[in-house]
Amino acid sequence: MSEVLTKAAARNIFYGGTVFFFVVFVGLVGHSVSTVNEMSATHPVTPSVAAGKHVWEKHACIDCHTIMGEGAYFAPELGNVWVRYGGREDAATARDGIKNWIKSMPTGIEGRRQMPHFDISEKELDDLVDFFKWTSEVNTQNWPPKVSG
Q1: What value does the CA radius of gyration of the chain take, rounded to a whole number of Å?
Q2: Predicted confidence (pLDDT) per residue in 47-89, tens digit
Q3: Least crowded by CB within 10 Å, which of 67, 103, 108, 120?
Q4: Is residue 97 within 8 Å of 89, Cβ to Cβ?
Q5: Global pTM?
Q6: Residue ranges, the chain, pLDDT below 50
């Protein structure tokens, strides 16, 4: 066997690798599309969820919080805040708890990070909580690994 890689062998490795990884890429895209289509059929986005996402974006919550692991790490993960407030067991109490927490900010407790006060209407709060509930129901394949975020 030759100690030197020939041009033909290098070309074959390049083209073979390109074809192999292109096939892998197409397979992964197909899997992603089928997963998203399946999720949108079983887990539709309602108008209140879309409005809640708009409230999330309007107030730039992602500047401090993460949602499903994306965003800043200054404040808690909010993709599972519905679960942490007990929304699966008692939806009404969880809804009221999340809304009251947001309304009570900032608390003024010394030495704690504080969320700024946002003038959010009751409708916007309900939409935001619907968005949090919707996100908690997305299959994130156990991400984040801890419930606390």
Answers
A1: 23
A2: 999 999 999 999 999 999 999 888 898 999 999 899 999 999 9
A3: 108
A4: no
A5: 0.78
A6: none
146 domain residue, yes or no:
no
Query: What count of other Cβ atoms lies within 10 Å of the Cβ of residue 147?
Result: 9
Tokens 């947001």, located at residue: 102
Q: Which of 127, 111, 113 is nearest to 59 (CA)?
A: 127
Identity of the amino acid at 142 = N
**Cα separation of 149 and 74, whole Å?**
11
The domain in which residue 23 lies consists of: 1-42
Q: Is residue 149 part of a domain?
A: no
Quote the tokens at residue 137: 């129901």
Amino acid identity at 3: E
Residues 6+ apart with CB under 8 A from 82: 88, 94, 98, 129, 132, 133, 135, 136
Side chain identity at 25, as an amino acid letter? F
Q: Are 64 and 72 in contact, with CB atoms under 8 Å apart?
A: yes
